[in-house]
Specification:
This protein has 208 residues and is α/β, with parallel strands linked by helices. The protein contains 8 helices and 7 strands, in the order βαβββαααβαβαααβ.
Amino acid sequence: MLFLPSFYLAPVSYYARMVQYDAYCIDVDEPYRKQTLRNRCWIASPNGPLSLTIPVVKFVPYHTPMRDIRISDHGNWRHLHWNALQSSYRRTPFFEFYADDFAPFYERKWDFLVDYNQALQDMVCGLLEIDTCPQSLPAKEESSNSDKIEAFIISPPSKGGGGASYYQLFSDRHGFMPDLSIADLLFNMGPESILYLKSLNYTWKQQP
């Protein structure tokens, strides 16, 4: 079984790893970490890689579990994120095809970050037709089975990535930007996204 952190619109490498397994478990009990992909994603904007960050309610650093992190409404972030996605991807081949699936996540309010991330992930897995099944067993129980669990930190695209390139709208300006959010792959490659994911062989860093 694959043991994964809860990420906001996780990067391509996250899903590439997921398709290699029959089941996975999301670690909702790990201490929340600031400035990670747990509440941010990277997309390809006209000006290069752009980070979209979900604001969270104040918490106790290194002691608050991921499951208890609440989303803040500060800064009208849902409106800003959806505008950024539209500005960056409305000219891609498949944005109109998937826009109605993504839009509701930027219209309604969610209380907890882990619930929001999981709902987005379930939607994305449906679009990709990934048949990997999420497990609902608590992460604390699963983590003791070290022979079945693998935990990874996935670097943001600003630090590089792996895998062959695929079509990106702004590659003529910025070159290929590796390991962006799965939204980038979907909007650019559509139904062929799953074939690309299955072709990848990323290098992963074991979590310390």
